[in-house]
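Repro case for the chain-ordering regression, as requested:
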Amino acid sequence: MLMKHLKLPIIIVNYKTYSEATGKKAVKLSKIAEEVSMETGVNVGVAPQFADIAAIADTVSIPVFSQHIDPISPGSFTGHILLESVKEAGAVGTLINHSERRLKLCAIEAIVARIRESGIVSVVCTNNAAVSAAVAALKPDIISLEPPELIGTGIPVSKAQPEVVTETVERVKRINPDAVLLCGAGITEGEDVTAALKLGTMGVLVASGIVKAKDPRKVLMEFSEAITETT
Amino acid sequence: MLMKHLKLPIIIVNYKTYSEATGKKAVKLSKIAEEVSMETGVNVGVAPQFADIAAIADTVSIPVFSQHIDPISPGSFTGHILLESVKEAGAVGTLINHSERRLKLCAIEAIVARIRESGIVSVVCTNNAAVSAAVAALKPDIISLEPPELIGTGIPVSKAQPEVVTETVERVKRINPDAVLLCGAGITEGEDVTAALKLGTMGVLVASGIVKAKDPRKVLMEFSEAITETT
Amino acid sequence: MLMKHLKLPIIIVNYKTYSEATGKKAVKLSKIAEEVSMETGVNVGVAPQFADIAAIADTVSIPVFSQHIDPISPGSFTGHILLESVKEAGAVGTLINHSERRLKLCAIEAIVARIRESGIVSVVCTNNAAVSAAVAALKPDIISLEPPELIGTGIPVSKAQPEVVTETVERVKRINPDAVLLCGAGITEGEDVTAALKLGTMGVLVASGIVKAKDPRKVLMEFSEAITETT
Amino acid sequence: MLMKHLKLPIIIVNYKTYSEATGKKAVKLSKIAEEVSMETGVNVGVAPQFADIAAIADTVSIPVFSQHIDPISPGSFTGHILLESVKEAGAVGTLINHSERRLKLCAIEAIVARIRESGIVSVVCTNNAAVSAAVAALKPDIISLEPPELIGTGIPVSKAQPEVVTETVERVKRINPDAVLLCGAGITEGEDVTAALKLGTMGVLVASGIVKAKDPRKVLMEFSEAITETT
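-- result from build under test --
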């Protein structure tokens, strides 16, 4: 799947290594995401653990993302994550440089270049406007701003630091006008999603807000409706 | 599967991130490994990439190992390898500290302790006798000696440095008499396997010797027969 | 200075990257440490930042330790810490594997082996009894137990977790009867030092307890007197 | 020293952890660099190991650079490199992200921001045009391009890959017109320096070409004269 086929706006649900989103539970949550996506027409992607990619990609038709890949080609890299491996398992894109798995700059550049030739989608996570601008120079498909101090807090970046999102959009667009931005961290309600879109992003990257919710379907439905109402 | 159910000696085939052992090819190679194991009665395990564990464990009944796990519990660890995830996918054990994925000492200790409670098998890779002795103090299920300078060379440790294997067995047993040792690096012929067993190991960890062989089945058969003839 | 010339028990003060112990302030604190050592006859060592080693070693005659070294020989390692460099600057020993600078197991082994040939003293930090036992197999000169959860808390390991210290001494001595143990974390009073010695250690590794004290001389004097009274 | 006081073009000599440039030998080499600088009027800086910064800065008046700093503030960071520490020792700038000490993107951003407020000069090393463009978005004082495959080969980037230097200058200037570029790797002769300047850089970062030369003074003189002739 090329980026041009990835419908925007998008909600990407990062399963992290939560027990609520491991193994069979990951497949079940992905079915819920698919149902919400079909009902609302909003694109919902999921980013499960590596060992769950194949089972989820075999079960649902929504986009499945890897949580990370390493800057390697096929070869002698025991214990590393190979682009070709997650792609064959069914991933249509991958997160990289998440705040819990930061990468060296030269690795980000090498990975984004590899992804560009591979026909999958790159989503590079960033922590502030300056880092986002640096990443924009590498021309990944998507940049996802997540101030790490807000992750898991329930305080949404789109409300707590709207100026950071605005500055990020501005600095990124100056370097790469085609850049697509998401934002994340602290997103728990529909209005956080609305705020994110109004600030110039094309969606959200969310984790505990969905995975740890009492009723993930309900929250995901609220997020999706916020998108259909805004766009 | 507990260690007591893991039949020894064992041949573990590390698939690394070789393209010859990724995705469908990984499943196919695992079927060959299973056939050889059934024909010869020798235990053959495979260590595929994370994204391939589930498909392989669903297809074959030989032991499947993860190539690595991280020192984490379920939670916020995007892009990391959770024991529970690879176990649910079907892994009955895991390599850790491979020369291509070395770990901090405190991580090795934490992972071995977690594995001990989980009912899967720990295989800790080491590079010399002193490091093997240190690992022995942590009481993993298996220690696998692989001098990194010999990996992928075709020069087997069991022939090139038999005294390193002997010294390793000796120093390890002094600290943990129950320790099980494998050795690896440069193993390409049956006689390398025979030599490894005679030096006091309970099998071999092999990668390119099988995966990159023109006829993996033939080489694996030769290795397995070397074991049946020696034991 | 060889280990045989390092008088025990010893108090080692880790300056970390505290501003109270950087540059001229580091030299001044080292003079205080030297005065206390001369007055009480107790051996007091200091572990300043790399850039301060030379000035301190030129000024005082107490043992100066590096805070870390890398597993490298002279060569192309920009930005790394070379044993020969800190030794020529005046370090007579080095900490390694501090909780704030953990190392890979194979690096610890390589560094301890290099140090053994260099005529300086190795002090390997550890976080629990199992890791200490693993390190004991590598035969460094000194092992310093510091449960990271107690560092900087003011809750001394010698009081809060005496059984951890005892178990560590026991497991370490079983593997290397000649091992010298220190303990650290939360040490702020003379009685913490007394407790540490009574549990079988040969001194303490302390940081904020001295560096952040209102009157470092007074606390260091209290620690030293606790040692003279106990031994 | 602020960037505005750093005279350009500049030759920066990276001492790495070469034994020829450790301790007293580092001071001696720095005196040679100072002499050449005074004779030719060309600015020559040196980047010694951390433990040698103070002795060199006390002895010579040419700019002394640190080889690396960590993304930290004063505090509990045993074994790390604090900006304040190398600055007090006499460093007027620092290399970061050298190919032998690559950093995470978010660390580069944090360090450059800290340096900006500190009044010292930041020199960020890069490996290609895309990475240089990304770094340009962070607005460091100097960007130094060094294709790692050429380091230590004697094949100068300015001759072997002039198009890479040209592309780098172009992409960097588009993002930050004020950017100052150096290039390095394989520089061994005066004409390599001339070529570097003609391609749009403001000098060179050199290591073995000087440090490992039979007659460092002669080579440094040749480099400096190449600069006076070109500018």
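Ordering looks correct now. Residues 158 and 195 of chain B are 6 Å apart (CA to CA).
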